[in-house]
């Protein structure tokens, strides 16, 4: 029996001010699966996540999230983001989206849904135990690693079925990145959450992800098993350096 699809992109093109940045994307994320989007800066990875979350409108194609298909073309990002969040999509943006003047605990409480399914703060602290000692500090005073943990913990409070994480490793040491990726693996296994993560530490993320999509110039060059891509250095080189 095939795994349950949480996300399907079919022929998706999207961009800004009428100019496409990503072109004809096909991508699937299933329950409990970690898929990584990798590629050089400007390849379209972040735009892809923003399109999935509803912040960037489609120019063509369809996005199916938890069995609901959208071909949204209008610029109504607030409404579309809200609808997808209610269907079970959580997005940790590149800037982490924290309220830096509030404490860690206050940031977590803001992430708690008022009704519906949720994950307890106690549970997310089991995934991110380092946060327990810093929850009374302002988020702006936390280290980069602590801020990323806080952002991911807050996203998980809504018990998302699909988690989008943009530039997980931004400004972080490889040791912290490896730790955070391990937590994502635990979350996917324990909760069945499908995870789509943009990551620059290629070798680290390929060790954890189930599948990888290699992007170049707004298109997907490879979509398959992460282990297979790891064994094809020439394809990785093509994705990052082109055909030169």
Automatic annotation (TrEMBL):
Gene Ontology molecular function: ATP binding; ATP hydrolysis activity; branched-chain amino acid transmembrane transporter activity
Entries under Pfam families matching the protein: ABC_tran (PF00005)
PROSITE patterns linked: ABC_TRANSPORTER_1, ABC_TRANSPORTER_2
ABC transporter domain boundaries: 7-242
Keywords per UniProt: Amino-acid transport, ATP-binding, Nucleotide-binding, Transport
Keyword Cell membrane: no
GO BP annotations, alphabetical order: L-amino acid transport
Similarity comment: family membership: Belongs to the ABC transporter superfamily.
Entry protein name: Unannotated protein
